[in-house]
Amino acid sequence: MLLEGKIAVVTGGTRGIGYEIVRKYLANGAKVVLFGSRQETVDKALAQLKEENADWEAEGMWPKLTDAAEVEKAVLEIKEKYGRIDILVNNAGISQSTPLYNYTPEEFDKVIDLNVRALFYTILPTAKIMKEQGGGCILNTSSMVSISGQPAGVGYPTSKFAVNGMTISLARELAKDHIRVNAVAPGVTKTDMVASLPQQVVERISAQIPLGRPGEPEEVANAFLYLASDMASYVTGEILSVDGASRA
Q1: What is the pTM of this model?
Q2: In principle, which of 125, 140, 165, 236 could form an S-S bond with 171, CB 3.0–4.6 Å?
Q3: Is 156 a catalytic residue?
Q4: Measured distance CA(198)–CA(214) in Å, rounded
């Protein structure tokens, strides 16, 4: 098992790619604390995980990620219970495609708050813990639009460009503390949003992907597993694209 005995925190872990990351980590021996937006979604995810494997050790929390004090409190509670935090996955985020002329400052701020500020709020207290314990791994969810941009909804690619900048910069700053920092940039993936689209729309999207299909959440989670494991012990400051070459 690649993560035997590791303590992992996964934000946005109740559905989609985040949920698959949680499953992948549990299946590889980690204990996982997943963060969700509401108690109901957290409880539902935990029930599904328990139904799949009663031996998996998972619990959930629902701090408001845009509240620095609330996030720090949750992180310190995890440290108090488990004694350490080995892996932090910042997966929570929102996307939108509002045209510029219809944008409001409030909508733009909402995207930046959750996709950028919340990462800083989780990383800061967690990195301090990792430094004290002698190292750790921080992983951020970026996007293929952080490389290619997108035709509308400028707040989302802007936030993901910021995620990349934060990832690369912190990788350099925290290397001396044996903390690796990387990001995964998924392309179009079969999450609930894609699954709800009409088949003809999915076919049109797939035709634009060189590999000819959207990615599976598990395929993206595999990248997060690799980067969290000792197989990636000399990998830091990378933005790993998992997008079927969609960025090209």
Answers
A1: 0.94
A2: 236
A3: yes
A4: 14
